[in-house]
Write a structure and sequence with these properties.
Blueprint: H1 3-8, H2 28-39, H3 43-55, H4 58-85, H5 92-100, H6 102-137, H7 143-163, H8 165-195, H9 206-209, H10 217-229, H11 247-276, H12 279-284, H13 288-333, H14 352-366, H15 374-398, H16 410-425, H17 431-441, H18 443-491
Helix pairs in contact: 2-8, 2-11, 2-13, 3-4, 3-10, 4-10, 4-11, 5-6, 5-15, 6-7, 6-13, 6-14, 6-15, 6-18, 7-13, 7-14, 8-11, 8-13, 10-15, 10-16, 13-14, 15-16, 15-17
Length: 492
């Protein structure tokens, strides 16, 4: 019996290596916690200064916060339509690639993975390092130590993500509970100040709360940038759709519950801030959360708020690393990014190489001062959100009968398309933000140039391969002719 017969025998079944796929392990509770944990980070302690400075009054600033929560919630519901219609992990890349093709999808992934996400998250990591070092060694801590702590945090959270998405989801669930406690403590600080009779009552008097509000539309564009920066991970679940249990239920419900919790928490935090501080005090301080704890409960309150901030940063970074790595992995699956980044580890069933890429990119941005990048990043970010909402309108027109397990009213998609486009254009009317806006938009031609170079390199490789294949075919045909002549000679 030949070896080939053995291989075909039922006793020796042929083993075919099946590609490792992501497991569906994330339910509604974990999904809600992931959204809440990813959103509620350092932003609520950084952005109030920018929001109230641009809005010009307590009332206008608080309205911006409320409207931002509504917009973010509508955004996550609209994305749920796309996510259930195209249930692949990867978020905007998947939707842009289907409608607009390789080039624009590449530019999005180029900007998202190399600029928007890692740079903004590096700010959170550095903030974690600053507050941890301040608690241990005081405010005079060497900057290199702060950055080393930030990098160590990023690496640690990367390792947790490698172990499995279920682990990071459980971590986010626990941290989300702790974040609720932080929000509760901040509100308690505001109540304590009111009880002491030291509250800033004028912030809540209708006749005074809107006094000094900005009349410049560009200022409100920037105020929304700062505010929506704190909601930045509202689309987290669309980056891991393939890991959600029953996506048609988990995606919209998990997003809605998570964003509702985020919006309510931010509203209560801002009410607490306005109870304790005047508008000028909010604008002048860089440590509003620490100041809140100290004013209400002294040194103990300051330490408690510091610990709360550290917990918030942990949840924000852990969930974000999970989502960005899935975007890289799904992009690589299509061949737009290097194919080795699409691999799923058999032991942990997570995209380890994509996670390592995220960790390395974030670590590089830690070395750069990214505190002034919010308007710069937001311009590009909201431009791609606008492009993504246009895919909903395009698919509603071109594929009206396609299966949509979840669907938002058409006017919601139109509103989001228009409002996100407005967010991109408004900062151009402000001299203060015009340069940063244009610098942000300059990443688009840069991404297009990289795509063009990559395309030319691929074309050259294909042509070389074709020439090599054709020359090999010619050589093979020459050998065949020689063999034919030899056989004829032998026969004669």
């Amino acid at each position: 019996m030949e070896l080939g017969d053995n291989e075909k025998s039922p006793l020796f079944p042929k083993k075919e290596s099946e590609p490792v796929k992501l497991k569906r392990t994330v339910g509604v509770l974990s999904a809600s916690a992931l959204v809440f944990g990813s959103c509620v980070g350092a932003g609520i302690f950084i952005s109030p200064k920018g929001v109230y400075e641009k809005a010009g009054s307590p009332g206008a600033g608080l309205m911006v916060w409320c409207l931002s929560g509504v917009i973010a919630t509508l955004c996550t519901l609209a994305y749920a339509e796309l996510g259930t219609m195209m249930p692949q992990s990867g978020g905007e890349f998947v939707y842009i690639h289907r409608v607009y093709g390789d080039c624009l999808a590449f530019i999005f992934s180029f900007c998202n993975t190399l600029l928007i996400k890692p740079a903004s998250l590096s700010v959170v990591a550095v903030l974690f390092g600053e507050y941890l070092c301040n608690m241990i060694w005081g405010p005079a801590t060497n900057d290199l130590i702060v950055k080393a702590v930030a990098v160590a945090l990023i690496v640690t959270l990367g390792l947790i993500n490698i172990v499995g998405v279920n682990v990071i989801a459980k971590v986010c669930t626990v941290i989300s509970v702790l974040k609720l406690a932080v929000v509760g403590f901040l509100v308690a600080c505001g109540i304590a100040i009111v009880i002491k009779g030291q509250g800033v009552v004028t912030n809540f008097q209708l006749s005074l709360s809107f006094e000094g509000s900005s009349t410049n539309p560009a200022d409100y564009g920037l105020a929304f940038y700062y505010c929506l920066f704190t909601f930045q991970s509202w689309n987290s679940l669309n980056y891991m759709t393939e890991e959600l249990k029953t996506p048609e239920k988990t995606l919209p419900l998990g997003g809605f519950i998570g964003l509702t919790g985020v919006t309510l928490s931010y509203f209560l935090c801002n009410v607490a801030y306005l109870m304790m501080f005047s508008l000028h005090q909010i604008v002048d301080t860089n440590t509003i959360a620490m100041d809140s704890g100290f004013i209400a409960f002294g040194r103990a309150g300051e330490i408690t708020m510091s610990l709360g901030l550290l917990v918030s940063c942990l949840g924000c970074l852990g969930g974000a690393i999970c989502c960005i790595s899935r975007n890289i992995q799904s992009t690589a699956e299509t061949g737009i990014f290097p194919s080795f980044l699409s691999g799923i580890n058999k032991t942990f069933q997570t995209p380890i190489k994509a996670i390592i890429t995220v960790v390395l990119t974030m670590s590089v941005y830690v070395l750069v001062d990214a505190n002034m990048l919010i308007p710069f990043l937001s311009t590009v970010e909201w431009l791609f959100y606008c492009v993504t909402f246009s895919t909903i309108l395009y698919l509603r027109y071109k594929e009206p009968n396609s299966k949509r397990p979840f669907k938002v009213p058409l006017f919601v998609s139109v509103f989001l398309f228009l409002i996100t486009g407005t967010f991109v254009v408004l900062p151009l009317f402000s001299e203060e933000s015009r340069v940063t806006t244009l610098l942000g938009l300059s990443w688009l031609p840069l991404g297009a140039a990289v795509y063009g170079i990559r395309h030319l390199i691929k074309q050259c490789c294909y042509k070389k391969l074709e020439r090599k294949t054709s020359s090999q075919s010619s050589l093979d045909s020459g050998y065949s002719e020689v063999d034919g002549h030899i056989k004829e000679c032998k026969l004669s």
